[in-house]
Amino acid sequence: MSSNEFLDYEEWEPLTRLGRMVKEGQITSIDEIFAQNLKIQEAEIVDILLPDLEDEVIDIKLVQRQSDAGRKRRFRATVVVGNKNGYVGVGEAKLKEIGPAIKKAITNAKLNVRPVRRACGSWECSCGGNHTVPYKVEGKCGSTKVVLIPAPRGLGLVVGDVAKTVLRLAGIDDVWSKTFGETRTTNNFAKATFEALKNTYSVVAPFDWTKQ
């Protein structure tokens, strides 16, 4: 499902300087935003610069909290968005109704979109493609820890279903993995995988040395 189905570019009135620059055409690529380390505060920016973004709901759970006024119930939705080509985001929202909770989670996921470095980091392959992670990376959320290891082309995603969704929308086709902690906590599992993918840009790799 496309995340940009209902976006009306003409009616959008940007509230931030970055939003105005995007609408006026001064910034035409999301790579420029990350290169300048700018913060995305409007989901419409992502809608314009990543028009092929897709979203997938990975968890909806009823959560309850006891207060002086009684028991309060809300729905917590966790959503992954990605273009299957190097960009992915994970978002979460809690609201009284399922529909608005999913919509808010999609917005939050767009605001959290990050680039993912892809390469052929497996010594078993060395094909030079962009089908796996460039080196071993790890991410942690709560008690859940995910380690992603480069894999040869054709292996597939050797990881749990939740992480598989995040990796697929990021454009990762092959990966080995190790997981620690409570992976049955769906939102933490997804966030830990997302953190691992973000860490693909945490170091300067040899192939960055020649870049200007």
From TrEMBL:
Similarity comment: Belongs to the universal ribosomal protein uS5 family.
Name used for this protein in its record: Small ribosomal subunit protein uS5
Keyword Phosphoprotein: no
Source organism, top-level taxon: Archaea
Domain S5 DRBM: 53-116
Classification via Gene3D superfamilies: 3.30.160.20, 3.30.230.10
Function: With S4 and S12 plays an important role in translational accuracy.
Subunit structure as annotated in this protein's UniProt entry: Part of the 30S ribosomal subunit. Contacts protein S4.
PANTHER family: 40S RIBOSOMAL PROTEIN S2, RIBOSOMAL S SUBUNIT
